[in-house]
Protein backbone atom coordinates (compact mmCIF):
# COMPACT_ATOMS: atom_id res chain seq x y z
CA UNK A 1 0.00 0.00 0.00
CA UNK A 2 1.48 3.33 -0.94
CA UNK A 3 -0.70 5.40 1.36
CA UNK A 4 -0.14 5.64 5.09
CA UNK A 5 -3.30 6.48 6.99
CA UNK A 6 -2.84 7.66 10.56
CA UNK A 7 -5.37 8.62 13.13
CA UNK A 8 -4.62 11.55 15.33
CA UNK A 9 -7.31 12.63 17.74
CA UNK A 10 -10.27 13.90 15.79
CA UNK A 11 -8.29 14.01 12.58
CA UNK A 12 -7.26 11.48 10.01
CA UNK A 13 -4.00 11.91 8.13
CA UNK A 14 -3.50 10.19 4.78
CA UNK A 15 0.05 10.48 3.50
CA UNK A 16 0.45 9.41 -0.10
CA UNK A 17 3.94 7.96 -0.30
CA UNK A 18 4.35 7.32 -3.99
CA UNK A 19 2.53 7.75 -7.26
CA UNK A 20 -0.78 5.92 -7.28
CA UNK A 21 -2.36 3.88 -10.02
CA UNK A 22 -5.90 4.77 -10.93
CA UNK A 23 -7.12 1.67 -9.13
CA UNK A 24 -5.31 2.64 -5.96
CA UNK A 25 -6.80 6.12 -6.15
CA UNK A 26 -10.29 4.64 -6.18
CA UNK A 27 -9.41 2.29 -3.32
CA UNK A 28 -8.09 5.22 -1.31
CA UNK A 29 -11.31 7.08 -1.85
CA UNK A 30 -13.35 4.14 -0.57
CA UNK A 31 -11.09 3.53 2.37
CA UNK A 32 -11.04 7.14 3.53
CA UNK A 33 -14.81 7.41 3.30
CA UNK A 34 -15.08 4.26 5.35
CA UNK A 35 -12.49 5.30 7.98
CA UNK A 36 -13.88 8.79 8.50
CA UNK A 37 -17.17 7.21 9.46
CA UNK A 38 -15.61 4.54 11.63
CA UNK A 39 -13.42 6.90 13.64
CA UNK A 40 -15.96 9.73 13.62
CA UNK A 41 -13.16 12.00 12.35
CA UNK A 42 -13.92 15.68 11.99
CA UNK A 43 -10.99 16.46 9.77
CA UNK A 44 -8.95 14.78 7.07
CA UNK A 45 -5.50 15.79 5.93
CA UNK A 46 -4.21 14.40 2.62
CA UNK A 47 -0.49 14.81 2.16
CA UNK A 48 0.47 14.83 -1.51
CA UNK A 49 4.04 16.11 -1.15
CA UNK A 50 5.44 12.87 -2.59
CA UNK A 51 3.52 13.32 -5.83
CA UNK A 52 5.49 14.82 -8.70
CA UNK A 53 2.45 14.75 -10.92
CA UNK A 54 -1.20 15.26 -10.22
CA UNK A 55 -3.10 14.40 -13.36
CA UNK A 56 -6.71 15.15 -14.05
CA UNK A 57 -7.80 11.76 -12.77
CA UNK A 58 -6.10 12.22 -9.42
CA UNK A 59 -7.32 15.80 -9.21
CA UNK A 60 -10.88 14.69 -9.82
CA UNK A 61 -10.50 11.88 -7.29
CA UNK A 62 -9.21 14.33 -4.68
CA UNK A 63 -12.17 16.53 -5.34
CA UNK A 64 -14.50 13.55 -5.03
CA UNK A 65 -12.87 12.55 -1.74
CA UNK A 66 -13.36 16.05 -0.37
CA UNK A 67 -17.03 16.04 -1.31
CA UNK A 68 -17.73 12.49 -0.12
CA UNK A 69 -15.92 12.92 3.15
CA UNK A 70 -17.77 16.15 3.81
CA UNK A 71 -21.03 14.24 3.54
CA UNK A 72 -19.63 11.91 6.18
CA UNK A 73 -18.97 14.87 8.44
CA UNK A 74 -15.31 15.72 7.94
CA UNK A 75 -13.50 18.69 6.42
CA UNK A 76 -10.52 18.00 4.18
CA UNK A 77 -7.26 19.88 3.78
CA UNK A 78 -4.70 18.99 1.13
CA UNK A 79 -1.07 19.66 2.02
CA UNK A 80 2.23 19.64 0.23
CA UNK A 81 1.40 20.44 -3.36
CA UNK A 82 4.78 20.92 -5.04
CA UNK A 83 5.51 24.10 -7.00
CA UNK A 84 5.65 22.35 -10.36
CA UNK A 85 2.47 20.48 -9.60
CA UNK A 86 0.75 23.73 -8.65
CA UNK A 87 1.76 25.36 -11.92
CA UNK A 88 0.58 22.35 -13.90
CA UNK A 89 -2.74 22.22 -12.10
CA UNK A 90 -3.36 25.88 -12.76
CA UNK A 91 -2.33 25.67 -16.39
CA UNK A 92 -4.56 22.71 -17.12
CA UNK A 93 -7.37 24.57 -15.39
CA UNK A 94 -8.41 21.55 -13.39
CA UNK A 95 -11.38 22.32 -11.26
CA UNK A 96 -10.07 22.34 -7.74
CA UNK A 97 -12.76 24.65 -6.43
CA UNK A 98 -13.74 22.88 -3.22
CA UNK A 99 -10.18 21.97 -2.25
CA UNK A 100 -8.72 23.58 0.83
CA UNK A 101 -4.98 23.59 0.83
CA UNK A 102 -2.25 24.21 3.36
CA UNK A 103 1.48 24.34 3.08
CA UNK A 104 2.29 21.68 5.64
CA UNK A 105 0.78 19.64 8.45
CA UNK A 106 1.06 22.47 10.98
CA UNK A 107 -0.83 24.85 8.75
CA UNK A 108 -3.34 22.11 7.97
CA UNK A 109 -4.03 21.53 11.64
CA UNK A 110 -4.52 25.22 12.29
CA UNK A 111 -6.89 25.44 9.36
CA UNK A 112 -8.84 22.36 10.45
CA UNK A 113 -9.06 23.68 13.99
CA UNK A 114 -10.63 26.83 12.60
CA UNK A 115 -12.96 24.96 10.29
CA UNK A 116 -14.21 22.47 12.84
CA UNK A 117 -14.39 24.82 15.78
CA UNK A 118 -17.34 26.72 14.42
CA UNK A 119 -18.99 23.47 13.41
CA UNK A 120 -18.63 21.98 16.85
CA UNK A 121 -20.20 25.05 18.43
CA UNK A 122 -23.05 25.06 15.94
CA UNK A 123 -23.69 21.35 16.23
CA UNK A 124 -23.58 20.91 19.95
CA UNK B 1 52.96 61.90 -37.94
CA UNK B 2 55.56 60.62 -40.34
CA UNK B 3 57.30 58.51 -37.71
CA UNK B 4 54.89 55.73 -38.52
CA UNK B 5 56.25 52.19 -38.33
CA UNK B 6 54.76 51.61 -41.75
CA UNK B 7 56.89 54.29 -43.29
CA UNK B 8 59.01 51.91 -45.36
CA UNK B 9 55.87 50.76 -47.14
CA UNK B 10 56.32 52.98 -50.18
CA UNK B 11 59.65 51.31 -50.82
CA UNK B 12 58.00 47.95 -50.95
CA UNK B 13 55.55 49.06 -53.54
CA UNK B 14 57.35 47.95 -56.68
CA UNK B 15 58.47 44.67 -55.15
CA UNK B 16 54.97 43.77 -54.07
CA UNK B 17 53.55 44.45 -57.44
CA UNK B 18 56.01 42.27 -59.24
CA UNK B 19 56.20 39.53 -56.67
CA UNK B 20 52.50 39.01 -56.34
CA UNK B 21 51.94 38.47 -60.01
CA UNK B 22 52.82 34.78 -60.31
CA UNK B 23 51.01 33.75 -57.14
CA UNK B 24 47.79 35.51 -58.05
CA UNK B 25 47.28 34.31 -61.58
CA UNK B 26 43.88 32.88 -60.83
CA UNK B 27 42.47 36.32 -60.02
CA UNK B 28 42.78 39.04 -62.59
CA UNK B 29 41.82 41.67 -60.11
CA UNK B 30 44.44 40.88 -57.54
CA UNK B 31 47.46 42.56 -59.10
CA UNK B 32 45.32 45.64 -59.47
CA UNK B 33 44.33 45.40 -55.83
CA UNK B 34 47.98 45.08 -54.89
CA UNK B 35 48.75 48.15 -56.88
CA UNK B 36 46.01 50.08 -55.24
CA UNK B 37 46.89 48.84 -51.76
CA UNK B 38 50.43 49.96 -52.28
CA UNK B 39 49.21 53.31 -53.43
CA UNK B 40 46.95 53.69 -50.41
CA UNK B 41 49.78 52.75 -48.08
CA UNK B 42 52.00 55.29 -49.71
CA UNK B 43 49.50 58.04 -49.03
CA UNK B 44 48.52 56.66 -45.68
CA UNK B 45 49.17 59.78 -43.66
CA UNK B 46 47.29 62.25 -45.83
CA UNK B 47 44.36 59.90 -46.39
CA UNK B 48 44.05 59.24 -42.71
CA UNK B 49 44.13 62.92 -41.85
CA UNK B 50 41.64 63.66 -44.57
CA UNK B 51 39.38 60.95 -43.22
CA UNK B 52 39.62 62.10 -39.59
CA UNK B 53 38.90 65.65 -40.74
CA UNK B 54 35.84 64.55 -42.69
CA UNK B 55 34.58 62.57 -39.72
CA UNK B 56 34.75 65.64 -37.51
CA UNK B 57 33.16 67.77 -40.20
CA UNK B 58 30.25 65.38 -40.57
CA UNK B 59 29.73 65.49 -36.80
CA UNK B 60 30.13 61.76 -36.55
CA UNK B 61 31.51 60.18 -33.39
CA UNK B 62 30.62 63.27 -31.40
CA UNK B 63 31.28 61.45 -28.15
CA UNK B 64 34.95 60.91 -28.94
CA UNK B 65 37.77 63.43 -28.84
CA UNK B 66 39.72 64.32 -31.98
CA UNK B 67 42.78 62.41 -30.75
CA UNK B 68 40.73 59.31 -30.15
CA UNK B 69 39.11 59.59 -33.54
CA UNK B 70 42.50 59.93 -35.16
CA UNK B 71 44.02 56.92 -33.43
CA UNK B 72 40.97 54.77 -34.12
CA UNK B 73 40.96 56.02 -37.69
CA UNK B 74 44.57 54.92 -38.03
CA UNK B 75 43.78 51.43 -36.91
CA UNK B 76 40.65 51.17 -39.01
CA UNK B 77 42.58 52.45 -42.00
CA UNK B 78 45.35 49.87 -41.58
CA UNK B 79 42.91 47.06 -41.08
CA UNK B 80 40.91 48.28 -44.03
CA UNK B 81 43.90 48.29 -46.32
CA UNK B 82 45.04 44.91 -45.01
CA UNK B 83 41.62 43.50 -45.76
CA UNK B 84 41.78 44.98 -49.25
CA UNK B 85 45.14 43.38 -49.78
CA UNK B 86 44.51 39.90 -48.45
CA UNK B 87 40.86 39.67 -49.35
CA UNK B 88 40.39 38.00 -45.97
CA UNK B 89 37.98 39.78 -43.71
CA UNK B 90 38.61 37.70 -40.60
CA UNK B 91 41.10 40.05 -39.00
CA UNK B 92 38.92 42.98 -39.82
CA UNK B 93 35.94 41.18 -38.33
CA UNK B 94 37.81 40.59 -35.09
CA UNK B 95 39.00 44.17 -35.03
CA UNK B 96 35.54 45.52 -35.79
CA UNK B 97 34.11 43.48 -32.94
CA UNK B 98 36.73 44.76 -30.51
CA UNK B 99 36.17 48.28 -31.70
CA UNK B 100 32.43 47.90 -31.23
CA UNK B 101 32.99 46.56 -27.74
CA UNK B 102 34.94 49.69 -26.92
CA UNK B 103 32.68 52.28 -28.49
CA UNK B 104 29.21 50.87 -27.83
CA UNK B 105 29.28 51.68 -24.11
CA UNK B 106 30.13 55.26 -25.09
CA UNK B 107 26.93 55.59 -27.03
CA UNK B 108 28.18 55.41 -30.60
CA UNK B 109 25.26 54.80 -32.94
CA UNK B 110 24.97 52.43 -35.88
CA UNK B 111 24.62 55.25 -38.39
CA UNK B 112 27.89 56.77 -37.19
CA UNK B 113 29.82 53.56 -37.67
CA UNK B 114 28.35 52.97 -41.09
CA UNK B 115 28.90 56.64 -41.86
CA UNK B 116 32.61 56.59 -41.14
CA UNK B 117 33.22 53.37 -43.01
CA UNK B 118 31.41 54.66 -46.08
CA UNK B 119 33.29 57.93 -45.72
CA UNK B 120 36.57 56.07 -45.84
CA UNK B 121 35.38 54.11 -48.86
CA UNK B 122 34.53 57.34 -50.66
CA UNK B 123 37.78 59.06 -49.71
CA UNK B 124 39.79 56.15 -51.02
CA UNK B 125 37.69 56.04 -54.19
CA UNK B 126 38.28 59.74 -54.73
CA UNK B 127 41.97 59.20 -54.24
CA UNK B 128 41.87 56.55 -56.94
CA UNK B 129 39.99 58.90 -59.27
CA UNK B 130 42.58 61.58 -58.64
CA UNK B 131 45.44 59.25 -59.33
CA UNK B 132 44.13 57.47 -62.41
CA UNK B 133 41.93 60.10 -63.96
CA UNK B 134 44.14 60.34 -67.01
CA UNK B 135 43.80 56.66 -67.77
CA UNK B 136 40.12 55.89 -67.60
CA UNK B 137 40.63 52.31 -68.79
CA UNK B 138 42.93 51.60 -65.90
CA UNK B 139 40.73 53.51 -63.51
CA UNK B 140 37.79 51.34 -64.44
CA UNK B 141 39.70 48.16 -63.81
CA UNK B 142 41.04 49.46 -60.50
CA UNK B 143 37.52 50.41 -59.44
CA UNK B 144 36.24 47.00 -60.53
CA UNK B 145 38.71 45.47 -58.12
CA UNK B 146 38.21 48.04 -55.41
CA UNK B 147 34.44 48.41 -55.19
CA UNK B 148 33.38 44.83 -54.34
CA UNK B 149 36.17 44.54 -51.78
CA UNK B 150 35.33 47.90 -50.23
CA UNK B 151 31.64 47.12 -50.09
CA UNK B 152 32.32 43.79 -48.48
CA UNK B 153 34.43 45.52 -45.86
CA UNK B 154 31.70 48.08 -45.18
CA UNK B 155 29.18 45.30 -44.75
CA UNK B 156 31.54 43.38 -42.46
CA UNK B 157 32.14 46.33 -40.19
CA UNK B 158 28.45 47.21 -40.09
CA UNK B 159 27.37 43.66 -39.36
CA UNK B 160 30.05 43.21 -36.70
CA UNK B 161 28.89 46.37 -35.01
CA UNK B 162 25.24 45.37 -35.07
CA UNK B 163 26.04 41.85 -33.88
CA UNK B 164 28.07 43.19 -31.01
CA UNK B 165 25.25 45.52 -30.10
CA UNK B 166 22.75 42.70 -30.15
CA UNK B 167 25.04 40.61 -27.99
CA UNK B 168 25.25 43.42 -25.44
CA UNK B 169 21.47 43.88 -25.54
CA UNK B 170 20.87 40.16 -25.04
CA UNK B 171 23.29 40.05 -22.15
CA UNK B 172 21.59 42.98 -20.50
CA UNK B 173 18.17 41.47 -21.04
CA UNK B 174 19.30 38.31 -19.33
CA UNK B 175 20.79 40.26 -16.47
CA UNK B 176 17.58 42.22 -16.04
CA UNK B 177 15.54 39.06 -16.17
CA UNK B 178 17.60 37.49 -13.41
CA UNK B 179 17.57 40.56 -11.25
CA UNK B 180 14.06 41.66 -11.71
CA UNK B 181 12.02 39.31 -9.61
CA UNK B 182 13.26 39.21 -6.06
CA UNK B 183 11.02 37.45 -3.56
CA UNK B 184 11.60 39.01 -0.19
CA UNK B 185 10.66 37.80 3.22
CA UNK B 186 9.68 40.69 5.47
CA UNK B 187 8.11 38.84 8.37
CA UNK B 188 7.91 35.27 9.48
CA UNK B 189 5.82 33.53 6.79
CA UNK B 190 5.16 36.77 4.94
CA UNK B 191 6.67 37.43 1.53
CA UNK B 192 6.57 40.40 -0.79
CA UNK B 193 7.13 40.21 -4.52
CA UNK B 194 7.60 43.61 -6.12
CA UNK B 195 7.21 43.46 -9.88
CA UNK B 196 8.85 46.23 -11.85
CA UNK B 197 8.90 46.75 -15.58
CA UNK B 198 7.39 44.76 -18.38
CA UNK B 199 5.93 41.34 -17.75
CA UNK B 200 6.23 39.02 -20.71
CA UNK B 201 5.28 35.37 -20.76
CA UNK B 202 8.76 34.11 -20.06
CA UNK B 203 9.29 36.43 -17.15
CA UNK B 204 5.87 35.68 -15.75
CA UNK B 205 6.60 31.97 -15.83
CA UNK B 206 9.94 32.44 -14.14
CA UNK B 207 8.34 34.71 -11.60
CA UNK B 208 5.68 32.13 -10.75
CA UNK B 209 8.33 29.46 -10.29
CA UNK B 210 10.44 31.65 -8.04
CA UNK B 211 7.42 32.64 -6.05
CA UNK B 212 6.31 29.06 -5.48
CA UNK B 213 9.81 27.94 -4.53
CA UNK B 214 10.03 30.82 -2.06
CA UNK B 215 6.64 29.91 -0.59
CA UNK B 216 7.84 26.38 0.01
CA UNK B 217 11.26 27.39 1.36
CA UNK B 218 9.96 30.08 3.72
CA UNK B 219 6.74 28.28 4.60
CA UNK B 220 4.94 31.44 3.64
CA UNK B 221 1.34 31.94 4.61
CA UNK B 222 0.76 35.23 2.85
CA UNK B 223 2.33 36.77 -0.24
CA UNK B 224 1.96 40.40 -1.24
CA UNK B 225 2.47 40.97 -4.96
CA UNK B 226 3.08 44.63 -5.65
CA UNK B 227 2.65 45.79 -9.23
CA UNK B 228 3.16 49.52 -8.71
CA UNK B 229 6.04 49.27 -11.18
CA UNK B 230 4.00 47.65 -13.93
CA UNK B 231 2.87 50.37 -16.29
CA UNK B 232 0.57 48.42 -18.57
CA UNK B 233 -1.11 45.11 -18.46
CA UNK B 234 -2.66 42.98 -21.20
CA UNK B 235 -4.70 39.83 -21.20
CA UNK B 236 -1.71 37.49 -21.29
CA UNK B 237 -0.03 39.17 -18.37
CA UNK B 238 -3.26 39.35 -16.40
CA UNK B 239 -3.79 35.64 -16.92
CA UNK B 240 -0.25 34.95 -15.80
CA UNK B 241 -0.93 36.90 -12.62
CA UNK B 242 -4.13 34.97 -12.01
CA UNK B 243 -2.23 31.73 -12.53
CA UNK B 244 0.49 32.77 -10.11
CA UNK B 245 -2.14 33.59 -7.50
CA UNK B 246 -3.98 30.31 -8.10
CA UNK B 247 -0.79 28.27 -7.90
CA UNK B 248 0.17 30.04 -4.67
CA UNK B 249 -3.20 29.16 -3.26
CA UNK B 250 -2.59 25.51 -4.12
CA UNK B 251 0.64 25.75 -2.18
CA UNK B 252 -1.36 26.95 0.78
CA UNK B 253 -0.51 30.65 0.69
CA UNK B 254 -2.93 33.54 0.35
CA UNK B 255 -2.04 36.25 -2.09
CA UNK B 256 -2.72 39.95 -1.89
CA UNK B 257 -2.27 42.10 -4.96
CA UNK B 258 -1.35 45.72 -4.38
CA UNK B 259 -0.38 48.83 -6.26
CA UNK B 260 -2.78 48.65 -9.17
CA UNK B 261 -2.57 51.94 -10.99
CA UNK B 262 -5.72 53.54 -12.45
CA UNK B 263 -4.65 52.47 -15.96
CA UNK B 264 -4.04 48.90 -14.89
CA UNK B 265 -7.32 48.60 -13.00
CA UNK B 266 -9.27 49.97 -15.95
CA UNK B 267 -7.47 47.63 -18.31
CA UNK B 268 -8.24 44.67 -16.08
CA UNK B 269 -11.92 45.51 -16.00
CA UNK B 270 -12.05 46.13 -19.74
CA UNK B 271 -10.28 42.86 -20.42
CA UNK B 272 -12.85 41.07 -18.32
CA UNK B 273 -10.24 39.06 -16.48
CA UNK B 274 -11.66 36.88 -13.75
CA UNK B 275 -10.23 38.45 -10.64
CA UNK B 276 -12.65 36.92 -8.18
CA UNK B 277 -9.80 34.85 -6.73
CA UNK B 278 -7.66 37.89 -6.17
CA UNK B 279 -7.61 39.92 -3.06
CA UNK B 280 -6.53 43.44 -3.90
CA UNK B 281 -5.52 46.32 -1.69
CA UNK B 282 -4.81 49.83 -2.92
CA UNK B 283 -1.20 50.29 -1.97
CA UNK B 284 1.68 48.29 -0.62
CA UNK B 285 1.26 49.70 2.87
CA UNK B 286 -2.35 48.61 3.05
CA UNK B 287 -1.39 45.27 1.56
CA UNK B 288 1.21 44.66 4.25
CA UNK B 289 -1.20 45.57 7.00
CA UNK B 290 -3.77 43.21 5.56
CA UNK B 291 -1.13 40.50 5.15
CA UNK B 292 -0.02 40.84 8.75
CA UNK B 293 -3.60 40.59 9.86
CA UNK B 294 -4.08 37.47 7.74
CA UNK B 295 -0.85 35.84 8.84
CA UNK B 296 -1.55 36.64 12.48
CA UNK B 297 -5.11 35.50 12.22
CA UNK B 298 -4.30 32.27 10.49
CA UNK B 299 -1.17 31.52 12.45
CA UNK B 300 -0.79 30.66 16.12
CA UNK B 301 -1.84 34.14 17.24
CA UNK B 302 -5.57 33.90 16.73
CA UNK B 303 -6.05 30.40 18.03
CA UNK B 304 -3.91 31.14 21.05
CA UNK B 305 -6.00 34.19 21.70
CA UNK B 306 -9.25 32.25 21.52
CA UNK B 307 -7.84 29.49 23.70
CA UNK B 308 -6.71 32.00 26.25
CA UNK B 309 -10.12 33.58 26.20
CA UNK B 310 -11.74 30.21 26.85
CA UNK B 311 -9.62 29.32 29.86
Describe it:
The complex is a heterodimer of chains A (124) and B (311). Chain A is of the alpha/beta class and 124 residues long. Chain A has helices at 22-39, 56-71, 83-91, 105-123; strands spanning 3-8, 11-16, 43-47, 75-79, 101-102. Chain A has one domain: Transcription Regulator spoIIAA (2-Layer Sandwich). Chain A is built from four helices and five strands. Chain A has a five-stranded mixed β-sheet, with helices on both faces. In chain A, helix 1 (22-39) links the parallel strand 2 and strand 3 (43-47). In chain A, helix 1 packs parallel to helix 2. By secondary structure, chain B is α/β, with parallel strands linked by helices. Helix content of chain B is 69%, strand content 9%. In chain B, strands 1-2-3-4-5 form a five-stranded mixed β-sheet, sandwiched between helices. In chain B, strand 1 (184-187) and strand 2 form a beta hairpin. The longest helix of chain B is centred in the middle third of the chain and has 44 residues, at 136-179. The radius of gyration of chain B is 33 Å and the shape is rod-shaped. Chain B starts with 8 loop residues before the first helix and ends with a helix. Chain A binds chain B through residues 79, 81-83, 85-87, 89-91, 96, 99, 101-104, 107, 110-111, 113-114, 117, and chain B through 208-209, 212-213, 215-216, 219-221, 243, 246-253, 298-300, 302-303, 306.
Oligomer: heterodimer
Order of neighbouring strands in the sheet with most strands of chain A: 1-2-3-4-5
Strand percent estimate of chain B: 5-15%
Mean pLDDT of chain A: 85
Based on secondary structure, the structural category of chain B is alpha/beta
| Biggest pleated-sheet summary of chain A | 5 strands, mixed
Q: Which series of helices and strands of chain B comes N to C?
A: HHHHHHHEEHEHEHEHH
The fold-level CATH name of the largest domain in chain B is Globin-like
How large is the radius of gyration of chain A?
14 Å
Helical proportion of chain A, percent range:
40-55%
Low-pLDDT segments, ≥5 res of chain A? none
Number of domains of chain A: 1
State the major sheet of chain B. Answer: 5 strands, mixed
What is the C-alpha radius of gyration of chain B, as a whole number of Å?
33 Å
